[in-house]
Amino acid sequence: MRRNLKILCLVAAVWMLFLFYYMQPDSTQSKEENIALRLIKQHSDVEETESSPASPEDTYGTGSTGRTYFDEGGYVAGGLRDSDPYVRNRFNQAASDNLPSNRAIPDTRNAMCRLKKYDDDLPQTSVIITFHNEARSTLLRTVVSVLNRSPEHLIKEIILVDDYSDNPEDGAALRAIRKVRVIRNTKREGLMRSRVRGADAATAPVLTFLDSHVECNVHWLEPLLQRIKEDPTRVVCPVIDVISMDTFQYIGASADLRGGFDWNLVFKWEYLSHAERSARLSDPTQVIRTPMIAGGLFSMDRLYFNKLGKYDMKMDVWGGENLEISFRVWQCGGSLEIVPCSRVGHVFRKRHPYTFPGGSGAVFARNTRRAAEVWMDDYKELYYRSQPLAKQVEFGDVSERVALREKLHCKPFRWYLEHVYPELQVPAFGGSYHAITQGNRCLDTMGHLVDGTLGMYPCHNTGGNQEWRFENGLIRHHSLCIALSPDDRVTAVLAGCDPADDAQLWRRKGRLIRHAKLEACLDSDRPALYLEQCDEEKISQQFTF
Description:
The protein has 15 helices and 24 strands.
């Protein structure tokens, strides 16, 4: 009896110790500890250009409170929000605010990536994140994902460049987190000048630029640094996964994509060719050479970044900078790569949440004109042909950038087209693309790529998705052509142009577009164009070139 009593007391004591340990305030930081938010007594320096908010570390850090962890809840709750969660950031801020900064996300890499080994002596990186009025929860989650999913010794510092946000404390409060440095602009500078300011302050040999609403996935950093260590002239990007703007679900993206553009100079994702995809089946970890980068997320050797001329400091706000740096890297001796074993999620929005002086269209056209005038030689006329209104936008003095190109002995744009992007269809300078119309509606790609359907959309007279050319039986939209879907042989879809493919051959008879092998014509009386029995009286079959 006495022995049973001793055993019972021992079990009770163990149980009490168990409860005591796991009921402590910091007990939630056991197995899933949010290491990034563990505070240190010595805070990183803040480099403010105006007076900082009074003691943000007392509010969110240790200070007089004696906290061990950054006060995530207090920081997020202190941010600005609206009754409509989409108003301030053009994504569902409420969904973001309800998620922890270290939430679990799926490992979206190919299984073969987990077998890859990387050098032990990879270079350190400075991570540069610029932001303007970013939601606090997404900004914090970006920082936390960098710290928690990167080898600690490879992150030299995280430099937050606050581009004159309405609330200075959005960035200043984060100085309590280890390795974080904060720089605040005294006026709105835009992405390019803000990134250069961060790069000038960086001390690591590699610069990594990230947007302020991303989540780095596991082992995202090592593959990028390995490629740069092997060749410092490489500019390397992760595969960009999708974070839903509505639910914040993390969704893996295809690794068979690369960046490109049409002659409107708008960035687009395009699938690798069938031959390239087939070659990758045996080793899906192979890097992908890309003609263009999206621009928001990439790593680059710091000395090489400076040598190549940083960014065009006369570009404003946002837009066109990815075009300019892509041309510059390729034409001046470097290369652009997408590294499939590196994954970073990004919140893609349908609209920008911030304002552009003079309007977003004018700012984008100005920046794009600057890139075209410096880097595209005579081929810039194809851009102006596609976007005639752009010629009315002033683009400023580009003499410094032209001198940089001459100093670096950069190759002509023709070389870029022949060796980097031979898939881009170059129209003869005598020919041109036009709209295909039905009244006030135009044939439109609807933003789709290969296998995507087509539709009719109100004409906007700026080219883009509505420019076509009838050539040797093909109806071309640059490198894409109208074809019959292989699934039903009725629906019209986009396909890579191939004159030997019967599904892509058409004939014009009056205002009808007749398939060359079938007695049927394109018809637009459904949301997606399709093939129907030819009828010259039917308005939906009458197209004007």
